[in-house]
UniProtKB/TrEMBL annotation:
Origin organism lineage: Bacteria, Pseudomonadati, Pseudomonadota, Gammaproteobacteria, Pseudomonadales
Protein name: FMN dependent NADH:quinone oxidoreductase
One Pfam family from the record: Flavodoxin_2
Superkingdom of origin organism: Bacteria
Similarity comment text for this entry: Belongs to the azoreductase type 1 family.
Catalytic activity from the UniProt record: 2 a quinone + NADH + H(+) = 2 a 1,4-benzosemiquinone + NAD(+); N,N-dimethyl-1,4-phenylenediamine + anthranilate + 2 NAD(+) = 2-(4-dimethylaminophenyl)diazenylbenzoate + 2 NADH + 2 H(+)
Cofactor: FMN
Amino acid sequence: MTTLLHLDASVRGERSLSRKLSKAFVQAWLAGDAHAQIIERDVGRNPPPFIDEAWIAAAFTAAEKRSPAQHEALRISDALIGEVERADVIVLGTPMYNYGMPAALKAWFDQIIRVNQTFTFDLARGDFPLQPTMADKTLVILTSRGEFGFAPGGVREHMNHLETHIQTCAHYLGVARSHVIAIDYQEFGDTRHQESIVAAFERVPVLAAQLIDQQGMPMCASA
């Protein structure tokens, strides 16, 4: 059975296009794999706390030596890591804010990328001492962007610090494959924006079906 971790990072509610995209992806997955398990995590509406000095001290203290206060400081981190560990596919709906991640999404990554939990550190590995502890996960980024040209080769590729940052961090969550479906031109609100919406939603069920097939799950007759 495949487990999807469905994350939303937009601070908007029903107006959010990234939320609509991620919801459509999960629905398309369930249409093809009715037995999939879905873990819901809404960091846009319920952001995790920022890490602080107490969190760092607890994270770098061996588990058996932590005080009750230190265990409490890592309680949310432990829960979020557990969700990622259970997931085969991470479905991330996120807008682009100021060319990068929403603060709540960055806080989520900071809570999860944790030494001796999601990665190990060993100087015997030379110049690449960090190594993720999880592997073989798939990431689907479903996003909406105010401008356009952020894809490879686009006029704003150099300004895209959303997908590149997510993919860099996701390596330490065991992500081996990533896919992006994006809506562009949101601030323009013209026909190009409408065409981009249509194109993105058309791609969603196609990608879901492809990934279900790669996961080796049988397609439902209604899919």
